[in-house]
Amino acid sequence: MACGALAGHVRDIAARRGWPVAVRSLPALLHNRPQKITESAERAVVCALRSGRAVALAYADCGSYGGLDDLCARYRVRRLPGLHCYDVLAGPERVAAMFAAEPGTYVLTDFLLRSFGRAVLAELGLDTHPELWPDYFGHYRRLVWLAQQPTPALAEQAERVAAMFGLPLTRVEVGVSRLEQELARLVEGIL
Predict the structure, then answer these.
(1) Do 51 and 78 have their domain in common?
(2) Are residues 148 and 160 in the same domain?
(3) Within its chain, how far is the Cα of 105 from the centroid?
(4) What is the pLDDT of residue 60?
(5) What are phi and psi of 12, to 5 degrees?
(6) Would you state the pLDDT for residue 190?
(7) Which of 108, 130, 164, 178 is paired with 118 by a 20 to 30 Å CA distance?
(8) What is the DSSP letter of 71?
């Protein structure tokens, strides 16, 4: 089971590594309602286990406040380490240092850049009520793009998003190697 925001990378890595796995993803929009992540993940885990499949969660905590850890303990399933996918992509020390240096940091990933209109603007109602922008984002001081597989189109989108915020953009190349290492630990634990 993969977080929808990571599922594309997870599928690519699994295919490249030749792992005999099926990647099922939960909707990335659950991040906007993190209290529903554990419930949705549990339904998917139970269904997979009942069908006799081994399961791992390609999810960090993602705002479940330990709910995913409780689920993993109950069903003897492992998940990716970290508080959020930023930890998985860039490393928890690097992310903690980034927030310590500027607590008002808004983090973007490739997925979030691709889906910004739907996942942020539409989901928060900013497409119809732009006057809410300062309420949601007025306290941010900078944007950091954790670039996994940057393209010119993503770079342009990052600049557009930074312009919406009216904030400087810092691009940090992280790639997918940390994600791949953590996935390898999960897959080796179930194969």
Answers:
(1) yes
(2) yes
(3) 16
(4) 95
(5) -60, -45
(6) 82
(7) 178
(8) H
Torsion angle in degrees (nearest 10) through CA of 167, 33, 10, 84: 60
Q: What own/partner pairs with CB < 8 Å and gap ≥ 24 does 52-56 have?
A: 53/22, 54/190, 54/191, 55/1, 55/190, 56/1, 56/186, 56/187, 56/189, 56/190
Same domain, 124 and 168: yes
**Angle of CA points 56, 62, 67, to nearest 5°:** 70
Q: Which regions of 17-168 does DSSP assign to beta strands (E)?
A: 25-26, 56-57, 78-79, 105-109, 142-147
Name residue, tokens 């977080």. 3
Number of domains in the chain: 2
pLDDT confidence of residue 191: 74
Quote the radius of gyration of the chain (alpha carbons, Å).
17
Which structural domain, as residue segments, surrounds residue 27? 2-84+177-190
Find how far residue 77's CA is from the centre of its chain.
19
- Cβ count within 10 A of residue 11: 16
43 and 115 inside one domain: no
Q: What is the pLDDT of residue 93?
A: 96
- Residue 85 CA to residue 189 CA, distance in Å, equals 20
> Are residues 134 and 169 part of one domain?
yes
